[in-house]
Automatic annotation (TrEMBL):
Involved in the biosynthesis of p-aminobenzoate (PABA), a precursor of tetrahydrofolate. Converts 4-amino-4-deoxychorismate into 4-aminobenzoate (PABA) and pyruvate. Signal peptide: none annotated. The keyword Transferase applies. It comes from Neptunomonas concharum. This is Aminodeoxychorismate lyase. Its EC number is 4.1.3.38. InterPro entries: Aminotrans_IV, Aminotransferase-like, BCAT-like_C, BCAT-like_N, Class-IV_PLP-Dep_Aminotrnsfr. One of its GO terms (molecular function) is transaminase activity. Pathway: Cofactor biosynthesis; tetrahydrofolate biosynthesis; 4-aminobenzoate from chorismate: step 2/2. Its cofactor is pyridoxal 5'-phosphate. The lineage of its organism: Bacteria, Pseudomonadati, Pseudomonadota, Gammaproteobacteria, Oceanospirillales. One of its GO terms (cellular component) is cytosol.
Amino acid sequence: MDIVFLNGKFIAADQATVSVFDRGFLFGDSVYEVIPFYQEVGFRLDEHLKRLQYSLQALRIELEFDWPSMLSELVSRNGGGSLSVYLQVTRGSAGKRSHHIESGLQPTIFACCQPIRDIYHEGADQVDGIKVIATADLRWHRCDIKATNLLPNILVLQQAKESGAQEALLLRDGVLSEGASCNFFIVEQGVIYTPPQGSGILSGTTRELILSLSDWHGIPRQETDITYERLIAADEVWISSSTRGVVPVLQVDEHCIGNGLKGALWKRMFELFTRYQHQLITGE
């Protein structure tokens, strides 16, 4: 997309520049969100902005800003439709490189858009099941902060790609935490299980919606530790993220999940997601 937002201005992407001394550039001293918009309506927008505020507070970045107005205008300036908005806030620039945080820095605010599929409009038949790998979790211990320090995630996603997979699930101390760019779930005998919330995983907005939809529609679910052995023996495995929704996993490493097809409970959850998205957009 051509138009981005940078520090109070909507400008052409090729005209946007930041200081080489910006702490987001030098140290990854920044946080971000990726927010899907369908027909110019933010999907779980309030939840994304609450998580953004949580991350900012964790980094002690003080900032007051009218996020909804800016995001809506950015989406509109880029043609509307189905877009994801990448929003990043850095601590700013002190005009030099220094590990120490100086007081009074002005945060850098950047946002851009790119097209996404409206998978809920396309329907469950158009969602392809995926393969994932399981590998060691090399990240820091504050994964509840949505920070831009993503090098471990990038490396394991490349490992997955080289293995013919689309995602990597992460193992630490014998249990799985989450994916490199997603949360995950397993299904055993009609019950949905996912790892418990804590500093080791991100509070995924789509994860929270799956749990809420389960509660609203009487689908049993539990938050519990999940081992690799339990993962590969599950009836169904799903991943979830803001831009992908809920996606069935058909293979983990060399292990086929269930009968190798999209599961019945995943289809039910996708139907509930579709209904929720329709109500959000139309107000019906």
